[in-house]
Amino acid sequence: MLLAINWADVGVQAAQLLTSLSILIILHEFGHFITARWFKCRVEKFYLFFDPWFSLFKKKVGETEYGIGWLPLGGYVKISGMIDESMDKDAMKLPAQPWEFRSKPAWQRLIIMIGGVTVNVLVAFIIYAMILFVWGEDPIPMNTVKNGVWITDSLMYEAGLRNGDKIVSISDKPVEYFDDVNKKILTAKEMIVTRNGVEKKIVFQTDLVGKLVESKRRRRLVEMRVSPLVGAFDKKDTSYASRSGLKKGDRIIAVDSVAVSYFDEMIPLVAKKKNGTVQFTVNRNGDTMNIVSKVNADGKTGLGLADIEDYAAAGDFKINHRSYSFFEAFPAGVKKTFSKLGDYIEQFKLILRPETGAYKGVGGFKSMGSVFPPVWNWENFWSITAFFSIVLAFMNLLPIPALDGGHVLFTLIEMITGRKPNEKFLEYAQIVGMVFLLGLMLYANGNDWFGWNK
């Protein structure tokens, strides 16, 4: 069955992705550019995106041609005397010149190679610091989550988790904030919860991530269990719940005379009335009233969740808002960067373990775009951009030829052994690395494509 696609939402997500990657690519390549110029290397080209056969824009300033290519798969700086993606073999046959990369000592070449990664890490530091300075943060302490968890994915039910369970620890470590629960579950083997005052161990299957990928589910595995408050309405003008007379802020106390204490308890009661009607008993400003609403063929009335602040006001949990001064924000930004890096490395390890099935979830541009919300929100945009900057830094340091990490590896070997790798070997290694990366890119975007059309 083909899914309807909201192209306006897709357009907003695509614009955010293109803007985010363009910023990060330019800054990454600037890291190579500025260090190359620092050591008096000639930089022949500085390009956003690749330009095989032609470019969309180019202008030469001094020794360097600045331009924008038409193939949005990255960017590059072409440094004289360096074996890179340009594969300029003819230039490498000529005698080395003082302004060329290959004529510089190994330690200088190493700094040039890690210049892009260094800038990406610094960018993440700065973005996270400015996010904390401007917006602060609103973590929810786990010990304030009064009602336990709400299972929003059947895989958690199959693992043994139940609505109302209170999380004690994940992988033998206490969880300080609920915000961290879902990402920790993905890499966890077990969880300890309390149910009716009794501790229970929940064991997760090794292929949990693989099953999530196969089912095309992107929602969070668990949420906080919340009160039955009336919140948003799906497409308000056509929502049965909205047209019935329900209002934002109403507290539902019963569905067809069956008492409910939590939002999740309403869902199965309403779902039983497909194509029928359901009676909500609500409390509005201290008054009790009955409101009848139609139910659609999917067993829904169009009633959505309330805002997180409304649930906090209802006493379901506490939001621990923290503001940061300009100078407090920078060490906090550093801490957040390394925390995000650690989380990403843990998830990356899953991909390297075939038994987890996580490799099935490797995605390309569609997956990256879907991370952005369908409306432009600056806090979300910069937060995602900072995370992408961390990912770009980590991936570029992998010891794969054609990536910065491959060049770094060969340079370190040279510094340890005192012998420079043969230039013909470096050429072949560059080709192998480029073929590998192209294959990986085709695989990742293939996952996206087939996932989109299933």
From TrEMBL:
Cellular component, GO annotation: membrane
One Gene Ontology biological process: proteolysis
EC number from the UniProt entry: 3.4.24.-
Similarity section: Belongs to the peptidase M50B family.
Ranges annotated as spanning the membrane: 20-39, 110-135, 381-404, 425-444
Listed cofactors: Zn(2+)
Name of this protein: Zinc metalloprotease
One Gene Ontology molecular-function label: metal ion binding
Species annotation: Lacibacter luteus
Location of the Peptidase M50 domain: 18-439
NCBIfam families noted in UniProt: RIP metalloprotease RseP
